[in-house]
Amino acid sequence: MKKKNKKVNAAILIIGNEILSGRTQDRNIAFISNWLNSNCGISVNEVRIIPDVEKKIIESVKVLSKKFNYVFTTGGIGPTHDDITAQSISKAFRLKYDYHKEAYKILENYYGQNKFNDGRKKMAKMPVGSKLIYNPSSAAPGFITKNVLSLPGVPSILNSMIDNCKKYLIKGSKVHSKTLNLFTVESNISKKLGIIQNKYKKSVDIGSYPFFRLGKIGVSLVSRSTSKAKLKEVNKEIFKLIRSKNIKLLKV
Amino acid sequence: MKKKNKKVNAAILIIGNEILSGRTQDRNIAFISNWLNSNCGISVNEVRIIPDVEKKIIESVKVLSKKFNYVFTTGGIGPTHDDITAQSISKAFRLKYDYHKEAYKILENYYGQNKFNDGRKKMAKMPVGSKLIYNPSSAAPGFITKNVLSLPGVPSILNSMIDNCKKYLIKGSKVHSKTLNLFTVESNISKKLGIIQNKYKKSVDIGSYPFFRLGKIGVSLVSRSTSKAKLKEVNKEIFKLIRSKNIKLLKV
Questions:
Q1: Residues of B with CB below 8 A from A153's CB?
Q2: Interchain contact A108–B (C-beta under 8 A)
Q3: Minimal Cβ distance to B79: which of A16, A19, A186
Q4: Sheet of strand A176-183, all strands in order from the earlier edge strand to the far edge
Q5: Which CATH superfamily does the domain covering A2-168 fall into?
Q6: ipTM confidence score
Q7: I need a surface site. Which of A89, A159, A191, B6 has the fewest CB within 10 A?
Q8: Rounded CA gap, A233 and A244, in Å?
Q9: What is the pTM of this model?
């Protein structure tokens, strides 16, 4: 029983001017969060997006690694001048920043000795004591330093690596969810919904999100809980509310 | 001359379990950031995504409103139990949370007296002293409290309201950018690029982002600066680097 209610959480730290400036639409947050919940029962409780600035990275890594069980960083582990994630994490934890022997070998093999230039060698440098997160698509590994897992920013490469994080993570209880799409407006149900939420405040989170579909206004009600039984109870109550107000459901 | 280098910055605070859980892909960050830079010369320097939890909202509003010229919050200003942005901002600034007369009138007119229920009335409550951000699509206004501007989470509604923020914002210098797409790998140019960046570190930010297009690997180099002249200089140097390495450009 105890294991069933084990809460494990994480934060995501997106390092990159290109996301902050709006030039690039982030796709890693939703991917990592969904993956963590489905595969490891870990909930993402905070996300920060910060620029490629050493001071900001150090500060964010310090704060988030203390507050959450895990921190996932994305971006800044390539070969160019703006790739400063590894150095910054070293400084945050006061660890030496040096070549990781295995990472060096992986990259040397991948590029061949002749093409293993300084930029590429840089990708083998990381905080001393880090363990590797293997990269099946472009060789350059990610790494885990204490409770901080560092991944690249390119979504296709990140996606190919994420399963290799699993062995470093303690599993929590998966959060189950149930979505009901109602053809009504939020204010029509807000009062009774608040009463239901209050009754189940310790076990279920109910979110209410307006949508526009098929030319009509609607509300998605998303209930989330680690307990399937409590989720069922809440949805029974929501169904009662729906029937009492004669609200139609959108079948999906 | 002085006005040309005026730096005005902002943070975005996304309030919403649905973004954190990965259920919903955020679209507001890139939109707000692009809008702020193009229309007001304001740079977004940090983004946080947090759950619908009062304590977290209060803490984040306090920290970010001190660190940045403006904070834009999205989400949590609707009629349901999970909409707690207005109350939380009131607490963060120790302001009374009460009906805003004009907001109340707007909503009463919009819904008609008979349909103006408690949930809808709630949308007229905000920190005392706040000014309204008008909403041309669904009436319920956003509001500005000190330097914190609160907008809804639904992208289409947010987009329709954003121009009404303009009158509350001090303008900064627009950041201009120039993108070059090179058919090469980052490590081929990283050393010389680092030298160029170092030479212009005070005036230009150069970002380097790998891409995959037309079956080939490439790098997008994005230079950003408030000075068009410095941007031109940097791009001249990058062109020199490109020619010396015989790198092809992707024309877009």
A1: 209
A2: no
A3: A186
A4: A205-213, A216-225, A176-183, A248-249
A5: MoaB/Mog-like domain (3.40.980.10)
A6: 0.92
A7: B6
A8: 17
A9: 0.93
